[in-house]
TrEMBL record:
Source organism (scientific name): Neomonachus schauinslandi
Protein name: Carcinoembryonic antigen-related cell adhesion molecule 4-like
UniProt gene name: LOC110582288
InterPro entries: CEA_cell_adhesion, Ig-like_dom_sf, Ig-like_fold, Ig_V-set
Cellular component GO terms, alphabetical: cell surface; plasma membrane
KW Zinc (keyword) present: no
Gene Ontology molecular function: any one: protein tyrosine kinase binding
Length: 210
């Protein structure tokens, strides 16, 4: 067994399948994908004396064999994962054979997170920002609606002043502007003769009394 290896490499990298202790009387190297030698799975055949490389049916154009029998894979892919077998042909027509395993894995980002996880986090952040913006707009519209409702309520109960009025049509009433006991009679007289502006007139007389 001239070759027994287990190699692990990230996708997109290069890897060298090295032959350990190759014999000095080797005249050829035959690389095959798989644990058994099948002609259609032949990658490359190398003649040592002539230094001639003959690609096989399984050659992808990314493999290079060296005079010592080692095989270089460039730009490795996940499909390259599997077992590889080498045959070493000697001058006495004997053949030594060995098998090794190549493992290819996804390369992680510098942050240690898979690319899919990073995309998921970014989408989550964008969704969170969108929800926050929608909540802000909802709160703003709620406050605006309350202020508009308060103005409509004041207009409903405080109609515009007429020419016979002598003061503001309506104003807010505070505890300091409440009528004193001395103004009870005028207010009572006004109540006996109701008017459409009775609410504002009461409020206006209360302000004058204060």
């Amino acid at each position: 067994m001239p070759l027994v290896f287990v190699a692990s490499v990230a996708e997109g990298k290069d890897v060298l399948l090295r032959v350990n202790n190759p014999p000095g009387d080797a005249i050829g190297y035959n690389w095959v994908k798989g644990e058994t030698v099948v002609p259609r799975h032949q990658i490359v055949l190398y003649a040592v004396d002539a230094q001639v490389t003959t690609p096989g049916p399984a050659h992808s154009g990314r493999e290079t064999v060296y005079p010592n029998g080692s095989l270089l894979f460039q730009n490795i892919t996940l499909n390259d994962t599997g077992y590889y077998t080498i045959q070493i042909i000697k001058r006495n027509v004997q053949v030594d054979q060995g098998t090794g395993q190549l493992r290819v894995f996804h390369e992680r980002s510098n942050t240690g997170l898979p690319v899919g996880s990073i995309v998921g986090i970014a989408v989550g952040v964008l969704v969170g920002l969108a929800l926050a913006a929608a909540l802000g707009c909802l709160l703003l519209r709620t406050r605006t609606g309350r202020a508009s409702g308060w103005r409509d309520l004041r207009e409903l109960y405080c109609p515009a002043s007429t020419p016979r009025d002598h003061g503001p049509a309506c104003s807010s009433t505070s505890p300091d502007s409440l009528p004193s006991p001395t103004t009870a009679v005028p207010i009572y007289q006004e109540l006996r003769h109701p008017d459409t502006n009775i609410y504002c007139q009461i409020n206006h007389k209360a302000e004058m009394a204060s």
